[in-house]
Design a protein that fits this description.
The structure is a homotetramer. Chain A is α/β, with parallel strands linked by helices. In chain A, about 30% of the residues lie in helices and about 25% in strands. Chain A is built from ten helices and 17 strands. A nine-stranded mixed beta sheet of chain A has the order 16-15-14-13-7-12-11-8-17. In chain A, strands 3-2-1-4-5-6 form a six-stranded parallel beta sheet, with helices on both faces. In chain A, strands 9-10 form a two-stranded antiparallel sheet. In chain A, strand 5, helix 5 and strand 6 form a beta-alpha-beta unit. The relative contact order of chain A is 0.17. At the A-B interface, strand 7, strand 8, strand 11, strand 12 and strand 13 of A face strand 7, strand 8, strand 11, strand 12 and strand 13 of B. Strand 16 of chain B pairs antiparallel with strand 16 of chain D, so a sheet runs across the interface.
């Protein structure tokens, strides 16, 4: 079991989640594929960086992320910054031959994503984009059912990602509302998770037809805004323009003939992290709601007529990743577990010299879908989605 | 309290539901606006007609629906036939000065619907189209909340109507799969209910952008098919072509700026009568699921932060129509109650010399939306919805 | 198909529910076992009686319930009065050879119930006590599963009946709070329904161990109180003593070795008609909640480990009584349907010369359980339940 | 921020959960009250101990738990062994002046628990018993509502803890089925969690009245059985006697006049970690289900009548411990978070020189309740619960 040294760039919420994953992964999956060593953490401000190191259990800290890239002892670069920094860091890390895990979305646009993908695709490194929600055990179970043919051929997919944290018009103009940093709004921030799951569970998108809405066109400026590594600071003062979407609604044509839709908004009062999908197949249906993420609902058409209905399956040892997680279903899958599993699969790929999904190719393909959605909304028409595999 | 004589045309499932409503309405709403008298029922086969009269408590029966139109003692004509007969009967009834309640959809097309609307619009009669689900007390409560401003300005609407009764490719080619009788498939049969609720709760549609799918292109022919009044007979034999949609998915632009979507399918294993909507407003959200129709979920943004969340309100005496229904919430609203309330409002309009909604204008407007959906799916583009009020 | 003339005594909420059942039963179950004719309705006040006749569709009315007993044209006596009148009316009806359906609980005490049971037991009449909730299709489906052995040997039963309509200390001292009229409080009013279901699904009670609580010891007196037929009139003024229980909690030993508990209260804010049970067997579990009565949840231990979980079965045509009810599950079972099914089974027993369950023997056995519960609460100890079959 | 060195005894599932908590606590709660240092872990087998140290991130390992007690550098002793070792270890640790966190139940009996309590009560150490479920944020929120008077005076409490992992008669006779190691069955293993929550939320128990059932009287012997530190090894062979309860059902009288019940079983097919409670107060109700632990349901009687119903509150930043947990509700509380919060409160007490609840007094009081339950079941009568505070 080798030690693999990690350099983490970004000490915000995502830094926390990734640090937890590195500490906990071997506790859950043992023998571990490798032991992550929390070597160094970067934050723009050196005091904050030192503080983050202590908090998140890193040996060292730095205010200069490039020093991580330059450090020959670092095996893994973890990019947990705002979106606009992903490309520069990832390309540098790839050139330095580091394995890379990058927060989602891969970048602000398809073009940026392509540059990142080009940087890694011919190198002998493992690259991953952190669409963690597909690693919820219940989602992995849905994948297993589908691959086993348990619901037959898929006819339709309906996904949502509904939140309410930006429904308040007085919540600040954080970087997530600024196109220059975030690339897009609800689309890149949250819809991409559902798009990733749709690709994972159903298959490639051939075309999209979308509507983007900006419900709150301006928000209070933050005193400081986001710093270079994207930590959001509270702020007050005059209002600035929101130039990203608050809500995205799209119809989907899948390459395999299925149809679908995705709706994502951060303005849905009462919804918190409402990631859902409903999939209808010729032999059954699957329903998932992340807010009740220990559960997957599945209906098998082949069940005897007087006993047919959605089964509420609580994931546990009998289900994907169950060998590593908690000994009893419903003991409790939290957000942390999705990141712990993500780390497990990432380090396993490194240890075994393989690859992992979703990787930068997947991240780039999602970016192409995002670009098509933006174009579709502007043109008010269907737009074909280019395929990178082609 | 006057007696009003009803002639009911059609003795199938809808005949049963309407008969129940006529018998039960005064039991629930008392003093009743008027007393419906079940005078005569029509079915194409005279023996079946006589049988239906006994079963549904009608004084007389006939095999000739025109005799009902011609009978001066009949005040109300109730059209519970398959869709292709609606127009002819309704126009005849209108010309004879009868009050009319017609099952949904109003007709097969906008053109047919227009003829019906033209026939009633300048006459002194009450006309209604039986979109009964908006009369579920929980839906009426949603309307009340919206009118009171409790959820602010509406931003988005998402509706579904999912069933699974036609998911089996061996289920017969009943009239509901034949365009010449039904007009359309899931669109007219079930999506129209959600479209009606969307108009009722949010407002007029300005444009639609739709996909129609036919998942099972042919089905076993029935031995006899539907008779003239549409009662479906079981059958076997070779297969015939399905020329209507199994599934409809549409995006919506509302005139007031809100956006929305509707999905309806009869091929969703495990869904039975899954009529749902979720509405997000600037001040709150409302969620409804007919499969749990005693309940309405509502979230008020103004609730104190540590006590905020969807409230599950069980409708009862404190809610719309509660004065007539059961004395305690959750005693149980069934399908029958939606039709009893419908009858109540219809007869009240007659007794008071007023009008009721949804009427033929509403039915015609929904038909225009349906036509736009069909056109949009064919053109693969947004289509503007004409407004009859214009 | 014979006509059977019904005399209904009591024109309150229960009169409404029974009238609905008589009108609708043949609409649902056709050919009907018999056609109930709403012949005469009794209320103490002649004007109210006449009004009720019109409202509920009865041919005649009377202020003297004895005239119904004396009328040789009446085949069925329906007792929908407050509890204290059940025994006198039922015994008179039995002596007159009428078939009898009596609202629950059968009477105020075991002693009264015994007199009623003795009056009917050797006569050639059909007698029934109206524990309607066991006729919810989902409950009948639970019974079917159990009889098929699908959940194995039953180990435990947990039932509740929670309401909140008397949680307000200012709600009036209706007859339901007066021992002389009601016999007991939550125990006889609502717990008996769950006790009936426990006997139906699990088997006979051998012993009980109970706690009775009266949370609100006095309530406002009503101006008039209940009239002879028990219709509750609104009232104000000084407060009177509540001498019945607000809440009952009991443990149960069943004769077959299973254990159980029942809790019933009318002081549970937020609960409306929360009749629930959960049954654990050696091979599976069943869960029911009347507030979502279209559904039954069942878990089969024999399901494959990675697909095991509670199935949510929506009752419909494939389930008990489905041939008569609505054509699609979740179209909607309401309170009315439970009474329609009750009427169906009652009239079928008359038409076929058989008997029906729950009958007066069942009602008497439940009364013996109730008496044991009262005794147990007073003695603060286990009390054996006498068995009338012994 | 001081470092505090932890010696953990026991490397099974609980060892994992506690190790996670020590690693993650400062990541969540920052500045942390203190930094737990994972110093040494004990397991009976030295190879397993070394393996556990690597897996769980401890600096050292030992096969002799006494060496931890004797080590002056250890500040905190964490007891995560089977129940029969709790007392000996805890008493030794107390005598050595260590702070102690001990898994639940505190010990096998009240007598053992008393010895432990006596050992700590006059020492200047922080002691805690790990009833972690009360630290689920939703449970802490229930406590807050109750303390604020939001549901008034509590009338009744109903709690359950239902699992199904021992429903299979072929699951092995692990230490949890052996009285000499576990003390009791479902009672000590799981019911104690609910009893702890009942005391926490409602108040002291004055008397209990219980039934204990053993559904599966013998089970396959394990090849090796549990080792000294209780790690369960798979096994086969002949069957041995189960001498503990599979199911416990008890009624409760609380000192403040409320009534209650608790049911716990490990033989409930389809239930996984179904810890629930429902509390009725004079002004509202609270309902919790750990299987959906992000949510708390609360009904306020004071809500306007047409908007009253259970609110489903997803805990997050606006709720207890929200400052440290995830930035958005429903991002996901898992089992780990309950232990992270537990560690936070424990170390805060050490850092601040205070105490924490539940401590050994609470653990002892729960043991007295357990003993009373056992006695009640044997005597088949109510048994008063002694109060240690008296």
């Amino acid at each position: 079991m080798q030690n693999l040294n990690v350099g983490l760039i970004g000490g915000g919420f995502m830094g926390k989640a990734h640090s937890l994953a590195y500490a906990a992964m071997p506790m859950f999956f043992w023998p571990a594929p490798a032991l992550p060593v929390r070597k160094v953490i970067a934050e723009a401000n050196p005091d904050l960086a030192a503080d983050a190191a202590r908090r998140f259990g890193f040996e060292n800290s730095t205010a200069d992320w490039r020093s991580i890239i330059d450090d020959p002892d670092i095996h893994v670069v973890d990019i947990a910054t705002p979106n606009h920094l992903h490309a520069e860091i990832a390309i540098a890390a790839a050139e330095a031959g580091k394995h890379i895990i990058c927060e989602k979305p891969l970048a602000r646009t398809g073009e940026e994503s392509k540059a990142m993908y080009d940087a890694v695709k011919d190198k002998n490194i493992v690259h991953m984009v952190a669409f963690n929600y597909r690693r919820t055990p219940a989602v992995a179970l849905a994948k297993k059912y589908i691959e086993e043919g348990a619901i037959g051929q898929i006819l339709s997919f309906r996904g949502t990602y509904l939140q309410d944290w930006s429904a308040d018009p007085n919540s600040p103009l954080s970087w997530r509302f600024q196109k220059s940093i975030a690339g897009s709004g609800a689309l890149g921030d949250i819809a991409t998770h559902v798009i990733d799951m749709a690709r994972y569970l159903v298959g490639e998108f051939s075309a999209v037809n979308a509507v983007l809405s900006t419900w709150i066109p301006e928000r209070p400026l933050q005193a400081g805004g986001a710093d270079a590594l994207g930590t959001v600071r509270g702020g007050e003062g005059p209002r600035g323009q929101v130039d990203v979407d608050d809500e995205v609604m799209t119809m989907i044509r899948f390459a395999n003939g299925a149809v679908g839709s995705v709706e994502a908004t951060r303005n849905a009062h009462g919804r918190n992290n409402y990631i859902t999908f409903e999939i209808h197949g010729t032999e059954g249906s699957i329903v998932f709601n992340y807010e009740r993420r220990d559960e997957l609902q599945v209906c098998f058409a082949s069940d005897q007529a007087d006993r047919r209905g959605f089964r509420t399956v609580y994931t546990g040892p009998a289900h994907p990743y169950g060998e590593g997680l908690w000994p009893i279903p419903a003991l409790g899958i939290g957000y942390g577990e999705t990141k712990i599993i993500e780390a497990y699969d990432f380090f396993k790929a490194i240890a075994e010299g393989g690859s992992v999904s979703p990787n930068f190719a997947d991240g780039y393909q999602v970016a192409l879908i995002d670009d098509a959605i933006v174009e579709s909304a502007a043109k008010e028409s269907w737009v074909e989605v280019p395929q990178i595999s082609a």
